[in-house]
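> Could you send the Bifunctional salicylyl-CoA 5-hydroxylase/oxidoreductase prediction when you get a chance?

Sure thing. Input:
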Amino acid sequence: MAGEVAVAGGGSSVRRIAVIGGGPGGLYAAALLKRLDPARTVTVYERNAPDDTFGFGVVLSDETLGGIEHADPEVYRALSREFVRWDTIDIVHRSRTHTSGGHGFAALGRRRLLEILHERCTALGVDLRFRAEAPPAAELAAGHDLVIAADGVNSLTRRAHADVFGPSLTEHRNRYIWLAADFALDAFRFEIAETPYGVMQLHGYPYADDASTVIVEMREEVWRAAGLDSRDPAESTARCAKFFTEALDGRPLRSNRSSWIAFRTVTNSRWSHGNTVLIGDAAHTAHFSIGSGTKLAVEDALALAACIEEQPDLTAALTAYEAERRPVVASTQRAAAASLRWFEELANYVDQPPRRFAFNLLTRSRRVTHDNLRLRDASFTAAVEEEFGCPPGTPPMFTPFRLRGLELRNRVVVSPMDMYSATDGLPADFHLVHLGARALGGAGLTMTEMVCVSPEGRITPGCTGLWTDEQATAWRRITDFVHTSAPGAAIGVQLGHSGRKGSTRLMWEGIDQPLETGNWPVSAASPLPYRPGVNQVPRELDQAELAAIRDQFVQAARRAATAGFDLLELHCAHGYLLSGFLSPLTNHRTDGYGGSPANRLRFPLEVFDAVREVWPAERPMTVRISATDWAEGGTDAADAVETARAFAAHGADAIDVSTGQVVPEERPEYGRSYQTPYADRIRNTVGVPVIAVGAISSWDDVNSLLLAGRADLCALARPHLYDPHWTLHAAAEQGYTGPGARWPLPYGAGSRTPPTGRTDAPKPRLRLG
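Output:
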């Protein structure tokens, strides 16, 4: 079968091509491949008529247009004559309009786009077959060198070969409908309507001199409460126009066989099968709120055609195509997922200060950032900073933040990082240099690693502790250094117990692997080993043992206070003992400490209350949680909100929001700032201050998260391993020299970027002819 063999012939050897689907991606792929080799036979199968189309306007980026211009100037010129261009975004909320400029958009009608591509394909000799159902992909593959499946989100090709493509389709919570207005909006418009049924939003943009695309979106429960689930399309369209009468100036909306749908994210583990390849929505989808699916499909077509020309055979070409496009699409899908979730949780943000709300919306995907937005529209960004409370010339990250009696000089936290470098729990010179260097480096708060409350509560033999007075004295040496040598810097301690993840080797000797000798017994909420057959089966703790461990936390907290720590964090994350009580995957108890969420919270809250009672009242306490287990049946975002709410009610001053590391079968959705949506949700639902963590790597990310109201503090780990002076360098790079980032006096001479070798050259003065 064609799907089971390597197919010879790339470039000119790909002679016969079938394209399933006559959307923009399929048509553009057909045109490119025919233009590159006029001798090819290229056939496009489209089930609809030439003038049938769904949706209204299409937005293309400058990057995509540049690729089109390079590959096919004629198509580019035809498109350019049609484009409506604008560079502003209007955000309308509670009758206030906030405008941000410098964005740059180009749009045209989808029908006109298809007409241009039809004309180009016809001129090149592509065989366009309208109202023609394509034969099955397997049948086409037998008689063609290449089959391009551009058959959309409901791809029959993908479905027929699901065992190879490995598709995953995720349906989301919002309902939306594509509509149009017969006038041109003068900006990309986001409008929020707070109705008796719930919050709704409008996304609108012009695509012609007399027409605009209008998308209306809302949570499914709002859609049902408004009765839109039971109305016919005409009634729905009229009702949407009434909800957004201000944006439309009382004018009607129209539909084009429009219906309410829930967005589906499509991914595939493979994009090709023999000589059949997926492009566009058949291969992947990205939520419309960050751009057009047409953009991705056209870019797929460009990459596919280029790879076919560049590679020696089709197998290599399809491999290269996927290798080139998959990272780009994955990045787009991550941004789209962040944007999608933002709109799903829109009701949590409507009470934000008006400019913060607008900034939050603009930066929701994390692709537009504080620094980026400042370049696009400095006056808008300055107004947001002023509302936030930034003194003139002060980036958001260098504004102070108060927790109880502790005022942090800036919003940067050195995240707890296990160093596995102690002996018998004693911090020594390594910890003095490690923590001292990072405090000198400018962070507002430097956190210790997890400090264990007992010898059997250690993760490894190299973990630090606070179960003896000798350890407390050793910690005092470090806190005294920070307070004396880095004035204004704070240092916090994180207290924890390893639970079932204890008695393992140092990280670099085999993470989570049991010791070769000298193992100590471990205990947990339930007798469930971390890795069955690898790690110990822990002892299920009884009432007396729980009371004893609670007292160990109390004694460690007393020593931490004596040692001079400014803040105490209770470690209830990452599958360690207290986290093990919180997760239903690790807590199978049938007594009062298991079962319901309230019961699973019971022991961690008992420990928190006992520690809070002995911890000095003026000093803050925070709690680190895993906001999701990244595993089916485990803790999820909704559970995390309730956990945070419970700790806040018991007096937690902030929640440090991490994720995962609870069960080994987790499947995290890694990416830049990938854990911050969980902090965002807790902050804007519960109203408690949060510390955001998780792949926050740049000062621009920190400023963006703070200014959008997604976090109050940002904790960074690896960046502080790479650069202990990360915070001071962030200040220098932003030209900031204020009180939020004071260089230690002995380091003052290094507060400017060192000069490098000269790279410029004398400018020519004379031109000799």
